[in-house]
C-alpha cells in the first residue's frame, strides 16, 4: 500500500511543484514505484515531469479521474518507476462540478459523500500499485488542497522565508488537523521544508530562525537556497539535464531526512 505525501502551503511560489517533482524523481531513482499527482490547475508539475504542455492532457487528467473515481485510464508513465496523473486549467472547474453535479462538459455526475474525500476514493484503485504517491497542490486552501490533504498520510509544508508565508503557516497547520479529523488517513505533518532561501537577506535568516523556534520538531535541518539550476529544472527537466546534479544536491539531504522520518513512524 502506497505512502501518500502532499506538498502544500496556501502561498504562491514557495517551491511546492519543484519539490514534488524532485521528491518523485528521487524516490523513483531510489527504486520505489511512484505516482505523482498534480492537483493544481496551473499544471506545473505536469509540465515538469511530462515535458509537454498541460493542454495536451485536456479530458485526460486528474479531473476526469476523480469524476469517474478511477485514475487507471489517466495515468501516464514519465520515467523509470515514475508515473503521472496530470492536470490542466480545467481542474479549476473542480469545485463547480462538486457543488452542481455537472462537469465542465455538461455531464451529470454526482459524488455522494464528503466532497473532500473524492481524491482519496479515486486513488484507492491504485494504492497497491505504488510505494509512494506524491501530490502537488495549488497556492490556496481550496477543494483541491483539502482533497489532497484528506488523501495523504503525510504533508510536507513548504516555507519560503517571507512574512506572508510565515502568516500562512498556522492556518495551513489547522487544515492538516482538519484532514486528520475528517479524513481516513490520519493525516500528519511530516515536516516543514524551508525553501528558496536567499542567503544574502538578513530577514530571510530571521524567518528561518523564527519558524525553527515555533516548530522545532517539524523543521527539516536542510534549508534549500535559491539556485539557478533548481529554477531551470522547469526548462530542462530531469532527463539529459547537464546541471541536474547541481539542481539536486541540496534536495538529496532533504530526501535523506524525509526518508528517516517516514521509516521512523
Ligand atoms: N530553490 C530554488 N532556486 C531557484 N528557483 C527556484 C527554486 N525552487 C523553485 N524555483 C523556481 O521558483 C518558481 C516557483 O517555484 P514553484 O513553481 O515550485 O513554486 P510553487 O509553490 O509550486 O508555486 P505555485 O504556488 O504557483 O504553485 C518556479 O519558477 C521555480 O522554477
Ligand atoms: Mg506549483
Describe what this molecule looks like in 3D.
The chain is an alpha/beta fold. It is 42% helix and 18% strand. It has eleven helices and eight strands. The structure holds adenosine-5'-triphosphate and magnesium ion. Adenosine-5'-triphosphate binds at residues 12-18, 40, 42, 44, 139, 195-196, 224, 226-227, 230-231, 234.
Please give the structural blueprint:
Blueprint: E1 3-8, H1 16-29, E2 34-38, H2 44-50, H3 62-68, E3 76-79, E4 82-85, H4 94-100, H5 118-123, E5 132-136, H6 143-150, E6 154-160, H7 163-182, E7 188-197, H8 202-214, E8 219-225, H9 228-231, H10 233-236, H11 244-263
Parallel strand pairs: 1-5, 1-6, 2-4, 2-5, 6-7, 7-8
Antiparallel strand pairs: 3-4
Helix pairs in contact: 1-2, 1-11
Bound molecules: adenosine-5'-triphosphate and magnesium ion.
Magnesium ion is lined by residues 16-17, 40, 42, 44, 136.
Protein name: Chromosome partitioning protein
Pfam family, one: AAA_31
Organism: Parageobacillus thermantarcticus
Instruction: Report the strand count.
Output: 8
CATH superfamily: P-loop containing nucleotide triphosphate hydrolases
Question: Helix/strand-derived class?
Answer: alpha/beta
- CATH class label: Alpha Beta
Name the ligand types. Answer: adenosine-5'-triphosphate, magnesium ion
Organism: Parageobacillus thermantarcticus
Protein name: Chromosome partitioning protein
Pfam family, one: AAA_31
InterPro entries: AAA_dom, DNA_Partitioning_ATPase, P-loop_NTPase
Amino acid at each position: 500500500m502506497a505512502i501518500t505525501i502532499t506538498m502544500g502551503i496556501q502561498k504562491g511560489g514557495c517551491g511546492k511543484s519543484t519539490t514534488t517533482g524532485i521528491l518523485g524523481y528521487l524516490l523513483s531513482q531510489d527504486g520505489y514505484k511512484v505516482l505523482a499527482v498534480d492537483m493544481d490547475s496551473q499544471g506545473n508539475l505536469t509540465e515538469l515531469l511530462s515535458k509537454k504542455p498541460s493542454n495536451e492532457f485536456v479530458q485526460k487528467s486528474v479531473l476526469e479521474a476523480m469524476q469517474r473515481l478511477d485514475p487507471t485510464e489517466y495515468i501516464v508513465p514519465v520515467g523509470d518507476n515514475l508515473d503521472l496523473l496530470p492536470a490542466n486549467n480545467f481542474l479549476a472547474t473542480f469545485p463547480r462540478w462538486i457543488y452542481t453535479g455537472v462537469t465542465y462538459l455538461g455531464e451529470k455526475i454526482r459524488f455522494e459523500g464528503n466532497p473532500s474525500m473524492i481524491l482519496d476514493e479515486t486513488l484507492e484503485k491504485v494504492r497497491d500499485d505504488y510505494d509512494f504517491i506524491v501530490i502537488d497542490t495549488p497556492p490556496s486552501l481550496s477543494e483541491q488542497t483539502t482533497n489532497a490533504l484528506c488523501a495523504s498520510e503525510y504533508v510536507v509544508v513548504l516555507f519560503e522565508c517571507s512574512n506572508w508565508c510565515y502568516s500562512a503557516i498556522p492556518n495551513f497547520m489547522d487544515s492538516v488537523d482538519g484532514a486528520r479529523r475528517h479524513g481516513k488517513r490520519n493525516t500528519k505533518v511530516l515536516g516543514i521544508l524551508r525553501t528558496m532561501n536567499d542567503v544574502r537577506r538578513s530577514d530571510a535568516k530571521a524567518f528561518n530562525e523564527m519558524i525553527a523556534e515555533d516548530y522545532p520538531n517539524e523543521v527539516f535541518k536542510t534549508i534549500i537556497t535559491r539556485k539557478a539550476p533548481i529554477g531551470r529544472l522547469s526548462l530542462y527537466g530531469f532527463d539529459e539535464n547537464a546541471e541536474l546534479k547541481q539542481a539536486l544536491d541540496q534536495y538529496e539531504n532533504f530526501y535523506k531526512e524525509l526518508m528517516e522520518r517516514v521509516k521512523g513512524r
